[in-house]
Amino acid sequence: MNINEIAKLAGVSRATVSRYLNNGYVSEEKKKIIRKVIEETGYQPSSQAQMLRTKKTKLVGVILPKIDSNTISREVAGISDILTKKGYQLILANTNNNIEEELKYLSLFKDNQVDGVIFIATILTKQHRDMLKEYKVPIVLLGQRLEGYPCIFQDDQKAAMTLTEQMVKTGSKFGYITVTDKDEAVGRKRMSGVEEILSKNKIEFGSEYVKCGDFTLESGYEKAGELFGEHPDIDTLICATDTMAVGAVSWLKKNGYRIPEQVQVAGMGDSSLGKIIEPKLTTVHFYYKTSGMESAKMLVELMESENVSIHKEIKMGCKVVMRESHRSR
User: Fold this and answer.
1) How far is Cα 190 from Cα 204, in angstroms, rounded to an integer?
2) What is the pLDDT, as a whole number, of residue 308?
3) Residue range of the domain that includes 188
């Protein structure tokens, strides 16, 4: 079955069927006839032929740092919800937080047939910036802000400040588990927010009270051991992510610390892990699925607009979720 046969069965010209398939103008009467013939025959237009006609593939590349991350899965769910409804298919490229892999996929999508790219970014190096300058297809950054590019990002500093403001009400000796400061958002911004509130409240907090993890449960467990081995009198522990906080809670419980009586603990991200551990984890809720949806809407606008030079920025909101791992007054 081909377009000529569909036209013959419908009693219309080949050009009319072509306009119908490509969303051009066709009268309502002819639309109904063509639609009925297509449904009865099960005809599906060739994607290759459509691509040649429209120069569109209806494919979107999504570059992500870690496919098994709760945060990333929520963002991808949001992206998928919007793009699927708009008729696009996703190609997921998992980099396992490897910068070389990110650059490889950025180059691959730049030079191959996708209509657009969503890059869920963590660390943006000079190589990333140089690569992005060469981009001809629309691209949206999710998770990091980069001036001059369309992007969706969290208000990480405010999130950390709001959480720390809650924790200082019942804590006086703070420890913090961070990630590399090469990560502008989760590393630098969240750390800055914690420091600002502790400084404002005249609470001692130097580099000796900070350990650097790598987003994993294992690093949260390990860094909690190092931190409390050096400072056993810490009464409040904040972690840059829920995953590391859950690892830290595991170490604290194994070593006889009572939570929250001796040590109150908080993370950031409102992951499913934090909801099932005991005690349940105090955290910050980021609207990750909504972020994914907004990034997809922004990309669709760029892909379907004549003006691809539009550079929007959206800073997302957040809320603190107080659970049982912090001390009440």
Assistant:
1) 18
2) 57
3) 156-286
